[in-house]
Specification:
- The chain has helices at about 5-15, 65-75, 95-100, 115-120, 145-155, 160-170, 185-195, 200-210, 220-235, and strands spanning about 25, 30-35, 40-45, 50, 60-65, 80-85, 90-95, 110-115, 125-130, 135-140.
- It has a seven-stranded mixed β-sheet.
- A hairpin with a 5-residue loop joins strand 1 and strand 2 (about 30-35).
- The termini are far apart.
- The protein is of the alpha+beta class.
Length: about 240
């Protein structure tokens, strides 16, 4: 994957939002900016291959331990991390709440994505991706930056009903092969009532439909994962 200089990446960010009458920004990276009278700390970084053996599609950025991050985390302002794919002119964003939990947790924190999702996102689309941990990411074209910031308060906190509607209009994918544990809160809300009624097969079917693009998981694989969850719930 190609990359660009950080200063050039910030110029792209500024140019994309410069037509907004209520946009301002400070120097540096990370930096404070104001959009529609709301303040954000933003950190920009190029996406690069993760170099996982057998998984050439996986990309990532790394957050180094940084004193500036410590100052940001001490303030009640959203911390937005954006990974940039210049080949597809696409940004990837991770849940700001998760970023707050993970930033400075160790020397380098890796945040993952997938190149195939970055390449296939359409104009005016927010493509939803789901990590095997249940963590959600959003992929979108650079030209949708303004819409991203306007919708940010709701993008990672939607109710299950709204989330299902979004899945019908976008693409959701598990990003790292076999799922060994179900941790997605919305999915657990759907299947736990079924498991309490001993309806394991129905719960398995819901899982297969919840992650339709995960070709690595067979019905048997899902049964094994759901059955392990069912055993933990047994009286």
């Amino acid at each position: 994957m190609r990359t660009i200089l950080t200063k050039d990446l910030k110029i792209k960010f500024i140019e994309t939002l410069s037509e907004l009458g209520n946009f301002s920004y400070e120097d540096g990276n990370p930096f404070l900016c104001t959009i529609n009278k709301k303040k954000y700390f933003v950190f920009l970084k190029n996406l690069s291959p993760a170099y996982f053996k057998g998984s050439p599609d996986i990309t990532r950025i790394q957050l180094p331990s940084n004193d500036r991050f410590s100052k940001i985390l001490s303030e009640e302002i959203s911390f937005v991390v954006l990974g940039y794919d210049i080949d597809n002119d696409t940004f990837v964003s991770w849940n700001p709440k998760v970023i707050r939990e993970r930033a400075n947790a160790k020397r380098n924190v890796s945040l993952y994505s997938r190149e195939s999702l970055q390449a296939n996102v359409k104009e005016n689309e927010f493509k939803l991706g789901v990590l095997s941990t249940g963590e959600k990411i959003l992929i979108f074209k650079r030209r949708s930056l303004a819409d991203f910031f306007y919708q940010l308060p709701n993008l990672f906190t939607e109710s299950p009903a709204i989330d299902k509607k979004r899945r019908r209009n976008s693409v959701e994918s598990t990003l790292s092969g076999k799922v060994t544990k179900i941790s997605d809160k919305d999915l657990l809300k759907e299947i736990k009532p079924l498991l309490k009624k001993n309806k394991v097969l129905e719960a398995v079917e819901i899982c297969t439909k919840y992650y339709p693009n995960n070709k690595d998981m067979t019905f048997k694989d899902w049964f094994s994962v759901v059955n392990e969850l069912y055993k933990t719930m047994a009286p």
